[in-house]
Model the fold of this input.
Amino acid sequence: RVNNWWADNLPVNAGRYNFDTIKYVYYRDITVSLEAFKAGEYDISWETSSKQWATGYDSPAVKKGLIRKEEIPDGSPVGMQGFMFNTRRTIFRDRRVREALGYAFDFGWTNQKLMYGAYQRTKSYFERSELAAKGLPSPEELKILEKYRGRIPDEVFTKEFQPPATDGSGDVRQNLRMAVSLLRSAGWAVDPKTRRLAHKNLRDERGNPLKMEFEILLDSPAFERLALPFVANLDKLGITVRVRTVDDSQYVNRLRKFDFDMIIGGAGGEIAPGNEQRAYWSSKSADTEGGLNYAGIKDPVVDELVELVITAQDRQSLVMRTRALDRVLLWGHYVIPQWHVAHTRAAYWNKFSRPELIPRYRIDFYTWWIDSQKERSLAR
Done:
């Protein structure tokens, strides 16, 4: 902390920046990181793993109250996370195929068995905010969407978007039947000789029927246990899927070049969407190496809706235009939605205090301070 900082006494900074020094410690392995935290190597851990949160903090320090585990309310938008298709790949260009594969993801079972029931299903690119599309389009939204009728899915006007649901039992037979029906309508069928899915008309570079096979690219082993049950369900449909986990450098380079079939990714979550929406969804960004349009969306309607969002003149028009964009993206099935949590998980050595009133959007750690009495108690 800089002494005699010129803005120290401004009202906006009152009670903030209470630490003389803040040190960030990086670990390549989350298991090692957790053990280091419990050993007192660092003071606070923002936990993102439901498994770690449920099972990893069973230590004497937690039982004695030396370490506090707290789920702090967080009202900030979370955006979309999911299995994201690279629609540049031939097998993913048909919207029906993308929708079909969504029926193979068993969120109910995954949440109960692998994530300790900690998550809610994400249903919007602007989840947990007033910008999220809900129900059927309002009259204000219809004024925006009507000019695109016939160029966007009919479901935008007639249905509320809901990802395929499961009961957590692991039995997804009915959902897989829906997937088979959609795949057949898109020209895919199981080859009786190989028991693998192939297209009736499309051919690969060798002239053979195009097979439904692809790779899920990951940058963390922690996602493997979440991806593999999805892969197992896809296998029942005759789809061959490989899961490949690579180091961060290779992962970033492959994303920059759009050299992947499917990733766990997403976007959105802004309180006030603006120019960044071009980077996420525009046709120009889809063709720009290093761009953020990983899904490869090239849709003139999406381009126009993005510009409407950016040029909104007031909050009300921004909300309506963003909801319209949200609906078109959702029914494009560019992502198989995954999950979100309604709070931030914090584990910390019990030496901190903070104001009773917490921010609505995200945690302001800079309003915390070292409580000398608590710190002395830890040292005993």
Observations:
- The first strand starts at residue 44 and ends at 47.
- The mean pLDDT is 94.
- The two ends are 28 Å apart (CA to CA).
- The first helix runs from residue 30 to 38.
